[in-house]
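Quick one, tokens below:
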């Protein structure tokens, strides 16, 4: 489950038109959502409040295995549509498998002029969280320098009293300040990072092959021939079978002056078409024409993402395949291998969305599956896609190192709940490694 601060940050990115998915760091985001989900540890409770669209507060407490808590504040320069935990779209609060839409060049907000002078200001976000009783302080400052450039400053301040004697003898300090500059033009995106604690410099680049995304076009002629659908702007003619999609490739390089070390990695991703909101998933307006009824057909290929990463210095290779096999079931498989030690690991997992017939939250409905109020001609295909509320998701994974993880995330009344455990099948003395329950409640207005 996304913390409230992450939910506000994503809402800020959407409000300012910034695409956080077009980053090399998020190249394997779809497969990580299924295989690398975080199971809560112990008992965690968080309460948040958004009194207005600019200011947000958050309070959290961990009761088990140790008692600690934190207090956080968020301030933004633009009004955000932050909903309550009972009305927020459930999928917006869960890291999930998703075929992300084709990249687009970020668009800045409209210019504002007063008496011949430009008066509009840059968008920014301020975030701070204090942890008790350790006294650790986390801070984040994000500012939009231009429509295609965003800068971030992240800082961690932790009292040295909490360090072990071993770390003190080495002169380590967990306090750090990191600067990050992101430049996104849609076709490619670059990141430049500097970490003050270890003097690390890093560069990341992601390039997207193919055309950029454009606003959807609505054809004037709605009476298309049977079995046809509107063609996407970046869709090419079929070339005989197989998956059809787009390719993204990227790399990163970093060097640390303090550690006197460097690293490099490369990655590639293949994503199928249609994208996140394909026209083939959209149900056209009701019509009594038999041609329009027969034109409604499911997508020709399942939403699929294939990724591969390679770190030549560490000798690590990772390949993952994720696909949505049905409307509510997505599966993923990943193989990790080291060319130097010959160590390998295979991990597989799945996520299953749970639905219910009653509709109590309009935000839960998928707009691509919304039915017309009064269809003129009954259609079994439409009836099978009746709008249903999503009230939970079950995630499970298992790997060759005998680790099994299972987690359920859902909504109970006005509260978001996460419950899960991690098990080690090879240990008879302690088969359950971790188990936890997380409760989250937040309101707005």
């Amino acid at each position: 489950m996304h913390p409230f601060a992450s939910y506000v940050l994503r809402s800020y990115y959407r409000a300012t038109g910034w695409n956080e998915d077009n980053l090399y760091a998020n190249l394997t985001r779809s497969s990580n959502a299924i295989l690398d989900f975080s199971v809560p540890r112990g008992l965690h409770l968080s309460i948040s409040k958004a009194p207005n669209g600019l200011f947000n507060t958050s309070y959290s407490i961990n009761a088990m295995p140790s008692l600690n808590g934190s207090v956080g504040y968020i301030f933004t320069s633009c009004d955000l549509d932050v909903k309550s935990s009972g009305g927020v779209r459930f999928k917006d609060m869960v890291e999930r498998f998703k075929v992300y839409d084709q990249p687009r060049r970020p668009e800045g907000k409209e210019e504002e002029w007063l008496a011949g002078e430009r008066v509009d200001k840059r968008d920014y976000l301020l975030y701070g969280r204090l942890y008790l009783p350790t006294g650790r302080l986390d801070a984040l400052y994000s500012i939009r320098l231009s429509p295609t450039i965003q800068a971030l400053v992240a800082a961690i301040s932790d009292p040295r009293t909490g360090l072990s004697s071993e770390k003190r003898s080495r002169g380590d300090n967990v306090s750090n300040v990191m600067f990050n500059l992101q430049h996104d033009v849609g076709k490619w995106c670059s990141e430049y990072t500097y970490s003050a604690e270890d003097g690390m410099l890093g560069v990341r680049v992601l390039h997207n092959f193919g055309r950029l995304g454009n606003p959807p076009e609505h054809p004037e002629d709605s009476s298309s021939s049977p079995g046809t659908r509107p063609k996407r702007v970046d869709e090419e003619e079929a070339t005989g079978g197989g998956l059809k999609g787009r390719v993204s490739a990227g790399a990163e390089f970093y060097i640390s002056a303090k550690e006197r070390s460097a690293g490099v990695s490369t990655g590639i991703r293949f994503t199928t078409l249609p994208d996140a909101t394909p026209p083939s998933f959209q149900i056209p307006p009701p019509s009594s024409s038999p041609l329009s009824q027969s034109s409604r057909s499911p997508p020709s290929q399942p939403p699929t993402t294939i990724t591969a990463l390679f770190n030549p210095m560490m000798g690590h290779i990772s390949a993952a395949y994720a696909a949505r096999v049905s409307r509510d079931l997505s599966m993923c498989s990943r193989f990790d291998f080291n060319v130097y030690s010959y160590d390998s690991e295979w991990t597989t997992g799945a996520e299953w969305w749970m639905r219910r017939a009653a509709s109590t939250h309009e935000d839960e409905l998928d707009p691509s599956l919304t039915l017309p109020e009064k269809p003129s001609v009954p259609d079994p295909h439409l009836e099978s896609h009746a709008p249903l509320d999503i009230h939970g998701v079950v995630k499970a994974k298992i790997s060759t190192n005998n680790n099994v993880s299972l987690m359920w995330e859902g909504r109970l009344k006005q509260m978001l709940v996460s419950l899960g455990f991690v098990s080690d099948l090879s240990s008879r003395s302690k088969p359950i490694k971790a188990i936890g329950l997380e409760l989250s409640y937040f309101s707005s207005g």
